[in-house]
Amino acid sequence: MQVDICRPCELSPTEVAKWHEFQQADESLQNPFLSVEFARAVDLSRSDARVAVVVDGGHVVAFMPLSISRGLIARPIAPGFCDLQAIIHDPRWEANLLDIFRCSKLNAYIFNHHVGAQVPALPRVLSSPSWLIDLSEGLVQYFDWMDNHHRKTIARVRRNLRILERDIGLLEFRFDTASPSDLQAVMRLKADQCRRLGWRNIAAIPWVCKLVDHLLSTRTPWLTGTTSTLVADGSIVSAEFSLRSTTVYSEWLMAYDRAFKTREPGLVRLYKLIEALSGSAIRHIDLGKGDEEYKQHFSNGTIDVAEAWLTSSRPLGLLAGAESALSYMLRTEFPTLEIRARENVWKWRRYAYRRK
Fold first, then answer.
1. Average pLDDT over the chain, rounded to whole?
2. Does 213 score more than 90 pLDDT?
3. Strand 224-232 relative to strand 171-174: parallel, antiparallel, unpaired?
4. Residues 50 and 148 in one domain
5. Domain membership of residue 57 as a residue range
6. I need a surface site. Which of 129, 193, 208, 318 has the fewest CB within 10 A?
7. Average pLDDT in the 56-63 region?
């Protein structure tokens, strides 16, 4: 087996067609974050985007998008912003993450949302559910399921929808507007959320802004950048910029106007989104991993994603492994310490924001 590493934009038309063929053959690989179009959009936005091209028996059998920094330390492509990672492979070829890593001559591969079924039994692996809304049986069946399993949640969302319409006027849900002004609204609301909560302001990261601009203009069966907004009386109360393929809708950047917080406009927008996708070819809405209550209540399915690391025996690999092991230990053995450290950072950032 041979592993060649190149930039996504250097892939040949034949290799791009192979990538599409592998995705088409496996429903679990049809998430838009796994598309060659996403990898190429990242390549146009930052210089470290790479693809490991796996050749076995003289044929290309797999691709794995990566971000490779100095020292041959690999992370998922668009690190911190890629909500699903995987080996995109020929269904007749058994994907082996360890073999690909060894043949790639990388010093380390550190990942956090890799499809769990592809991750070997490693000493330290954190497995988490990535929450899915399964619409494959239709909208009526899904809402029947919600009424049976989470009646209070869906009743509350419908009640908030009626109250918003009563107090503000008719709500308008704009789906897939492809509007630059709507995207700007998403980023503006997201920036306010980040500053308020003490998070890093993603709307101020140049490569992220460049990436979402590229994705907004991308419209293919494998990847379409999708802006959707919930509008009341001409004002956007909740907005998102997400990605979709023909069969999978993956929620990504979401925010809402704090003035409407008590009416949960984000959940009302999600409710309207589910309605808008009814009758389309979308089978799953991927809400991503996390312990948010709304994900657990709206989801009627999950996939396992894994967080772990692979390292070589070379010095840089051992150093990256030690750093990853320390992070793992903090989260698993001393979770309270890590949570307090994060909270203190967020408090300081919120204080700095209020002082401005």
1. 90
2. yes
3. antiparallel
4. no
5. 2-129+305-355
6. 318
7. 95
Region 197-202 average pLDDT: 84
What CATH number does residue 271 fall under?
3.40.630.30
200 shares a domain with 80: no
Residues 159, 345: Cα–Cα separation, whole Å: 37
List pLDDT tens digits, range 292-305. Answer: 999 999 999 999 99
Q: Please, which pLDDT band fits residue 89 given cuts at 50, 70 and 90?
A: very high
| 49 shares its domain with 123 | yes
The H or E element spanning position 224 is strand 224-232
Number of domains in the chain: 2
Q: Are 238 and 97 in contact (CB under 8 A)?
A: no
Dihedral, 292, 298, 304, 306 alpha carbons, nearest 10:
-20
CB 57 within 8 A of CB 94: no
For 225, counting Cβ atoms within 10 Å of its Cβ (0-12 exposed, 13-18 middle, 19+ buried), the class is buried
User: What DSSP assignment string belongs to 293-318?
Assistant: HHHHHH-SEEEEEEEEEEE-SSHHHH
Residues 9 and 75 in one domain: yes
Residue 173 and residue 244 in one domain: yes
One-letter identity of residue 120? P
